[in-house]
Design a protein that fits this description.
By secondary structure, the protein is of the alpha/beta class. It has 13 helices and eight strands. A hairpin with a 2-residue loop joins strand 1 and strand 2.
């Protein structure tokens, strides 16, 4: 297993596919690891410089070791995938692109882990393709609806949007300090790598700002439709999430047919990174049982 684990790197798993969405064709970047009979798709959040690998590098190996094929899709407008100015629901767009990627890869049914925007996109996919979903794991996202208790946009979302407009190391540190509960774990190297990723694709940064101007409600409120989702769902939240408040997790729990909720204390918006070992054990147990 050690040899296999050593082979799982961003570079060794990096691939591209041509995916059609209506009349538009995207080149979509994804990482593909493992060879299990069941596939787990991981969908990243909307932060500047985000990618599947950046979001989930602490989770890929344990899931591959547990026997799953793991696919990390970089959404249009992020990382090495094609740019886009999105003038409608980005959650729906990502859901359609995921369907296109699965069609190209000839994968019929998947489990989906979605963080933040990835959670919204996972729900969009599940609503449009219920027969193609096994189980869902939603962390810090799942519907773009408002919080009943916190001012919107939240402190974290304001910092995120500010970073898109002015991508400096100071603004990145300001956002990441709110993004996680304990920012001392964020090394200077990690921060610089994230900044380099952002600045390598200024078109993505500029297009996100243009998208917000053209269509401010980028992420749909699926609250009224959550009852349509029958897939077993594990909702995971950080008690200290300053991007998407915990009551959104309670809305998911109340709205879905078959959902359970786990809350991590001393955890911000990045449960799969901040509490990686416990997260991985919990997710593998949920998927297997």
């Amino acid at each position: 297993m050690t040899d296999t684990a050593q082979a799982i790197t961003e570079a060794s798993t990096s691939k591209f596919a041509r995916v059609k969405d209506g009349d538009v064709e995207f080149q979509i970047h994804y990482n593909d690891a493992g060879a299990g009979a069941e596939t787990v798709v991981m969908l990243h959040g909307s932060g500047p410089g985000a990618s599947g690998w950046a979001n989930f590098n602490r989770n890929v190996e344990p899931l591959v070791a547990a026997g799953y094929r793991v696919v990390l899709m970089d959404c249009p407008g992020w990382s090495k995938s094609d740019p886009i100015v999105c003038t409608s629901s980005r959650s729906d767009l990502n859901g359609r692109v995921l369907k296109g990627l699965l069609d190209v890869l000839d994968i019929e049914r998947v489990h989906i882990l979605g963080n933040s925007m990835g959670g919204h996109s996972a729900v969009a996919f599940a609503l449009a393709n219920p027969q193609r979903v096994g189980k869902l794991v939603l962390m810090g996202g799942g519907t773009g609806g408002p919080s009943s208790f916190m001012p919107m946009p939240t402190e974290g979302i304001k910092l995120l949007q500010g970073l898109y407009r002015d991508p400096t190391i100071e603004n990145l540190k300001r956002m990441m300090n709110v993004f996680v509960y304990d920012a001392s774990a964020l090394t200077d190297e990690l921060m610089q790598t994230r900044l380099d990723n952002m600045l390598a694709r200024r078109d993505h940064l500029e297009n996100f700002v243009k998208s917000l101007a053209a269509f401010p409600k980028q992420f749909s409120d699926y609250g009224p439709r959550l009852g349509e989702i029958a897939a077993p769902t594990l909702v995971i939240w950080g008690r200290d999430d300053r991007f998407v408040p915990m009551d959104i997790g309670l809305r998911l729990l109340a709205g879905m047919q078959n959902a359970q909720l786990h809350v991590f204390n001393r955890c911000g918006h990045w449960a799969q990174w901040e509490h990686a070992e416990a997260f991985n054990r919990m997710v593998i147990d949920f998927l297997k049982h």
